[in-house]
Write a structure and sequence with these properties.
Strand content: under 5%
Shape: elongated
Structural class: mainly alpha
Helix content: over 70%
């Protein structure tokens, strides 16, 4: 079989169309990955600022004694309760970030399981459960669901 100029032109158009399609798919995947990384970086910046907040809170007068009272489930003064709310918020922002990055595939399952253990540990504290009950609506629904599963498991134990 001999190829005519028309046959070669049609083949060229077909190959060109396939190359354009492959290029578009490749660009779409790159844009998607770039967007995911940008969102993850935003969450990471939020977490970094909250970790800095925890450091400031813990180094403030009464910070370590409040955390001690919190982890021993002792009654808290109004000032200690306010401190505990800030401490809880900073921790839950960090936990939510870790959950979000896990859902994006940027945090592996082992790290997420370690975070779940930390969430479980902190939710055994009365003041932290009270914080969650009052403020859970301020977090992503998928994260709320994860924390609620942990709370249900703690309640069942």
């Amino acid at each position: 079989m001999e190829w005519t100029v028309q046959d070669l032109g049609a083949l060229g158009e077909f190959v060109g169309s396939v190359v354009v399609l492959v290029t578009l798919v490749h660009i779409a995947l790159q844009v998607r990955q770039s967007n995911r990384l940008a969102v993850a970086a935003s969450y990471q910046a939020r977490t970094d600022s909250n970790i800095e907040l925890i450091s400031i809170l813990l180094s403030s007068p009464g910070g370590t004694s409040t955390v001690t009272a919190l982890f021993e489930n002792q009654p808290l003064s109004q000032e200690q309760q306010g401190f505990t709310d800030w401490y809880s918020e900073a921790n839950f922002v960090y936990f939510e970030n870790n959950h979000f990055q896990h859902t994006l595939g940027l945090v592996d399952g082992e790290d997420w399981q370690a975070t779940r253990k930390s969430i479980t540990r902190i939710l055994t504290k009365d003041a932290v459960r009270d914080y969650w009950a009052r403020n859970s609506h301020t977090y992503r629904e998928s994260f709320q669901s994860e924390v609620d599963k942990i709370l249900n498991r703690i309640g069942a134990d």
